[in-house]
Amino acid sequence: MPTIDTHTHAWPDSLAATAISRVGDLGSIVAHYDGTVLGLLASMDRAGIDRSVLLPVATKASQVRTINDWVIGLASERIVPFGAMHPDVADPWAEIALLRAAGVRGFKMHPEYQSFEPTEPRLQPIYRAAAEQKMTIYFHAGGDVAFDSVRGTPASFVDVLDAWPDLRIVLAHMGGFRVWPGVLERLAGRDVWIDTAYTLGHLPDDEFVALARAHGIDRVLFGSDGPWTDSEKEIAHLRRLAFTPDELAGILGGNAERLLAG
Fold first, then answer.
1. Domain layout of the chain by residue ranges
2. For residue range 38-75, what is the model confidence (pLDDT) as tens digits?
3. Which CATH number fits domain 8-199+208-254: 3.40.190.10, 3.50.30.30, 3.40.50.2000, 3.20.20.140?
4. SS (HEC) of the chain
5. What is the share, in percent, of the chain residues with pLDDT greater than 70?
6. What is the reported pTM?
């Protein structure tokens, strides 16, 4: 079974160094590769990762088309690009249709970097287009090391799931970085995927395993959040936890295969 990392980041070569410096300074975090696609591929080779999902974030609506044109050209056997979306895009239906026609399976949204609440009315056209075109929305969930605010709360995502039951959603960081009690209380067991990105070592190991099982192992995805963690060490950490071989195989790749197959 392949090993699939569902949560990685990279930038065009001309922008990578600036992006790494800016994001690293904001969050006081260190990059483990140079932010380029070649750097990502090299990190995958070191960690034995077969495929990675690339998740871009548009901080302005004007960046969305440029980013999407770039990621569409990255699709390969090893890189699965997701698109970018922003709450202020004038015609989200057309942008999402462009991605879908190009074979892109979903897009990333980040409540902190994009300054939105998941329940805002301006998100409704995006949700409608994603649901009708069967596209996955990959949300940053919970806090972020670069921000004091927490817009993507478990309660807000419960409201989205209740209002849009046909949406396919992934909530990064085990459903919500540093708001895991709320994830356990409000989101565990709901029809939503969660990933492991930037969670190991922040959520105690026993609580990590308990949350994964409470939610349902078949909806837990391995994500490294590269370059902001070392994916090889993340996988080694996962292998030390009290998961059965079947549970671990699902987290490391089997579940992602199902998600990406639609």
1. 8-199+208-254
2. 999 999 999 999 999 999 999 999 999 999 999 999 99
3. 3.20.20.140
4. CCCEEEEECCCCHHHHHHHHHHHHHHHCCCCCCCCCHHHHHHHHHHHCCCEEEECCCCCCHHHHHHHHHHHHCCCCCCEEECEECCCCCCCHHHHHHHHHHCCCCEEEECCCCCCCCCCCHHHHHHHHHHHHCCCEEEECCECECCECCCCCCHHHHHHHHHHCCCCEEEECCCCCECCHHHHHHHHCCCCCEEECCCCECCECHHHHHHHHHHHCHHHEECCCCECCCCHHHHHHHHHHCCCCHHHHHHHHHHHHHHHHHC
5. 100
6. 0.97
